[in-house]
Amino acid sequence: MNDKQLKKTSKFLSLVLRHRPELIGLEMDSAGWVNTRELLEKSKLKGYNIDFDTLEEVVANNNKKRFSFNEDQSRIRANQGHSVNIELGYEPVEPPEFLYHGTATRFINSIQRQGLLKRNRHHVHLSADLATAKSVGSRHGVPVILVVRSKEMHKANHPFFISKNGVWLTEHIPTEFIDFP
Ligand code: HQG
């Protein structure tokens, strides 16, 4: 399967596994898992004919490792980025000294007032490297990278989590912990 087709499949999976399972009548459990066979059957009914090999390829090769199977591959879920109300069950972990958040210049004034908000998602998303933060920011406009003093924030009792694909997550980042450029 070529990159374009894989990307299209990944986008469709992001939509149903993170945001709108009801679009294809898919049942999702409280941890975000769906039945793999049911996902394929119900996708097909809606005109997305994905076979199991393609699904495996997306899970294994998707550039951000957005999805995971359970052990016997009977269930699948998105690793992060949900807007549906589920509980991923990640354990709190101590973050590094700094984490990075890529955003767009046009949001800066508002972030200076409110801190970083999770908006539609379950968490504010952060990365451990600058390149990822820059590409995340570019999705919204002219990118700007905010440095979050994560260790200090953690010491002040804000829990941090890391998703299976290495995205750092936290509830809200007050402005006092953000270094603006
Ligand atoms: C901004 C991608 C104004 C925030 C990426 C961001 C990520 C504020 C936007 C994942 C604000 C929300 C998430 C405030 C936050 N005022 N703007 N107070 N607080 N914002 O897409 O972090 O490709 O929900 O800076 O790799 O861009 O989907 O979040 O610009 O990990 O796998 O509001 O999505 O992963 O945008 O991206 P998003 P995000 P996937």
Quick structural overview:
This protein has 181 residues and is an alpha+beta fold. The chain has 6 helices and 9 strands.
Name the overall outline: elongated
Q: At the third CATH level, what is the topology name of the largest domain?
A: ADP-ribosylation fold
Number of helices: 6
Query: Helicity level, as a percent range?
Result: 25-40%
- Main sheet properties: 3 strands, antiparallel
- Alpha-beta content class: alpha+beta
**Count of distinct structural domains:** 2
What does this protein structure show overall?
By secondary structure, the protein is of the alpha+beta class. It folds into two domains: 3-78, RNA 2'-phosphotransferase, Tpt1/KptA family, N-terminal domain (Arc Repressor Mutant, subunit A); 99-179, ADP-ribosylation fold. It contains six helices and nine strands, in the order H-E-H-H-E-E-E-H-E-H-E-H-E-E-E. The protein has helices at residues 3-19, 36-45, 52-61, 108-114, 130-138, 150-155; strands spanning 34-35, 67-69, 75-78, 99-104, 124-126, 143-148, 160-162, 168-170, 178-179. The protein has a three-stranded antiparallel beta sheet with strand order 1-3-2. A three-stranded antiparallel beta sheet has the order 4-6-9. Helix 1 (3-19) crosses helix 3 (52-61). It is elongated and about 50 Å long. The mean pLDDT is 95. Bound molecules: ligand HQG. Ligand HQG is lined by residues 64, 66, 81, 103-104, 107, 110-111, 114, 116-117, 119-121, 125, 136, 140, 167.
